[in-house]
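re: ur question from yesterday

yeah so i grabbed the chain u mentioned. its 339 aa long if i counted rite. heres the sequnce exactly as i have it in my notes:
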Amino acid sequence: MSALTERAATPNERLRAQFAALAAYLDERIIGQPALTSRLLIALLCDGHILVEGAPGLAKTTAIKTLAGGIEGDFHRIQFTPDLLPADLTGTDVFRPQSSDFEFQPGPIFHNLLLADEVNRAPAKVQSALLEAMAERQVTVGAKSYPLPALFLVMATQNPIEQEGTYPLPEAQLDRFLLQVKVGYPDRAAEQRIMALVREEAHAGGTAMPNAAPIVSATSVLAARDAVLELFLAEELERYIVELVAVSREGTSAGAGQLADRPGRWLRYGASPRASLALDRAARAHAWLAGRDYVTPDDIQAMAHEVLRHRLVPAYAADAQEISADDVIRELLRYVAVP
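ran it thru and got these structure tokens back, copy pasting raw so excuse formatting
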């Protein structure tokens, strides 16, 4: 008999059990994309936003929609297009003849989970409205600002194949995403399981679910966030996080001097201090989901790519040699000594 069955579970253990059930449910429905499902949960636990890059048909929309079905919150999808207006996202003031006054009509951004599909197709004004929502947790219409829900997560997607008619996301907006996740194709076995699952749903009229969704309340999500923040992170590991981020700025073309032996030599700009904060929190969430009450170097290294890749700006020399941000991060992890 385990120790957990001999005594009452603690609140932290009950929260972990809820999220373990939610993770199993996501993996059961989103076949062949374990990295995407785990990073969605980490973003949820870190009160952050996630940028997902992948080709069409890789279950990006299904993933966030399935997550919404497993938590106590509402979901909305917005297809970003070049003709989208800020009011299509935030809402607008509507004139009511009955009262001869204007009344604010909230837009789709006031949902708990928001899918910004092909976010880089929208023009600058729409990006600005989304940036305010992500950074300030509010939207401004006219002279008034309106707060967003406490449980608010944006999952934005980018299609790496088509670049025609797209607007590159500004660095300030990229820095507001906690994680950037690259989604690849599933393997053959997983793709065969996807076919079987779709056939099963088709036979059941499109409503078949292998198991009922384990609903996690908004209160539990907020409590889990507090539990993640309470995880033990040794001072040596804090210095390790800071060193990883700081070294990315040393030797850059925008920095002071050229340090030829530093990974930053391949970069025009390294990561901002916001990257240190994001890596700290993401590593804690990774450890918490793994069932530990402390952070290890493996947790930091596991999250380094998703936290840093969109915050690094490669130099022209790196582009010419086809050295990507992920290549620089691998060099960072080799260069900085593990405590």
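noticed a couple things. Residues 231-335 form a domain with the Helicase, Ruva Protein; domain 3 fold (CATH 1.10.8.80). also The chain has 14 helices and eleven strands.
anyway ttyl
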